Amino acid sequence: MAGRVPPGSGANQNRVFIDLTDDNEPDDSEVAPKTLVQGKLPFVTALAYRSPTVPLKRKSLDISEGFSDSSSSDVHRYVPRMRLSHAHPDPSTPSPPPTVKQSQISVVIPSPTSKQKREIALAQSVSNVNGMDVNIFPTTDEEERVTKAAYPTKGRVERRSIPLSFKSSSVLNLPSPSKTDHLAKLRHTLDEKLKRIDGPMVTPTVDSPQRLAKLADNFEFVNSYQYRAGVERIPDDSDFNIGCACSENDGCDRFECDCLSKEEHSEDRIVPYEVCEKNRKLIVATKSFLNRKAIIYECNSRCGCSGKRCWNHVVQKGRTVRLEIFDTGSRGFGLRSPDLIHRGQFIDLYLGEVITKAEADERENLTDGSHTQSYLFSLDWYVKDDDDEEENMKVIDGRKFGSATRFMNHSCNPNCKIVPVCTTNHADEYLYNLAFFANRDISPGTELTFDYNQGEENTTPQKIDPEAVQCLCGEVKCRGQLWPNKRKGQGSRP
Ligand SMILES: C[S@@+](CC[C@H](N)C(=O)[O-])C[C@H]1O[C@@H](n2cnc3c(N)ncnc32)[C@H](O)[C@@H]1O
């Protein structure tokens, strides 16, 4: 059986995918100063604007005051220094009356005009860090209202809590109000989507707005397969769907239950599950099962055991661990859990759109090869290298719809394994679940990974294809690339 993760998928010609990403959302860093809100000045401009026009001074005046640290570029110090070095120390000081001893006076500076006096007074009252005293330079409507006592305010208005009204956030690195709104909207959208996921919480730890947008827009979390046009299914209530003859009272016999697969050349049953040694409440996949290649048939509604106390109901009971989507940096998003996961513990299903092989090929062909991220998995456990059978094959596309496991990255030394599991319907060999199990104990916070080439022979390339997606798993025995050259862009074989 081979699953695959080809290099991305394109839009289906018969289907419209709505891209919710707001491409027109302005990037604050790109907003040119000319787009500033009318009447508001950027921080730097504001400083320059408030430098008052000052009168010339007597040359004999001591102007050393305020120059104690002329090399300092600190804004705190710069503003008063500017003021002291240029402003008249006492604007009301009149010019000395002309005397007959003209030769004793080197320069005569006229007294400031009344307009200049006002400007000097304003300049002297500037005392805060930004040089934006609300009395002289209100930066927001709110401040103006506060200054004018246009509405009652309880306590002080904290200037720094008010977003600046000009667009460019580069000076103080504060988001503009529109950006803040957009971020809040994205977080809300994402929260709403995450809330709809069944089972323990799935949380995102993503701070960058762009990454948040990628997660919030353009992707829907789903709790089950989404069947698309052309996918034929055998209904659960079909006569072909059968169960075991075990009794409700005795429970399923671990060695006799008809649901269990048989070894290839014997009548022996393959027992997939056991009680976890470290947590007796957990049913986990056995160590030997994890080391082999086999499909699991769990008991279903057609079974005599009725499922209430049957140990062979694990995947269908759903996820029991919390998950967290986080940013790995070089490998995009990744998945981890804040919980301890025991070896053999079921983690979650790989979900997405169920499409035909033809549709998968079309989606694959529609990409221009620029996608390096791939989310397609073939359900080809029973497919031999035979064209007729391949036609019946279904493919899971997790690009636009999926579960949190869609964020699991590849590792050449993975801690999870993907296992084919039939739950409710045993009749449809072209449709089953892709279930992730831990192949060792995984401590909380460790990234969950699996091998995208699981089940492939000779996955270590002779020579790394320079065009293949480079593997960045960082393992000592890293194979260097995600997929073998011959199947570049194709993935896991459970
Ligand atoms: C199924 S997605 C995994 C989630 C993906 N990181 C994301 O941000 O959506 C598969 C893609 O993740 C990236 N990826 C996964 N494992 C990687 C690894 N070990 N090294 C480099 N890229 C990896 C590749 O771009 C790959 O096509």
From TrEMBL:
PROSITE patterns: POST_SET, PRE_SET, SET. Signal peptide: none annotated. Residues 20-30 have a biased composition (Acidic residues). The keyword Transport does not apply. One of its GO terms (cellular component) is chromosome. GO terms for biological process: methylation. Residues 321-453 form the SET domain. This is Histone-lysine N-methyltransferase, H3 lysine-9 specific. It comes from Penicillium vulpinum.
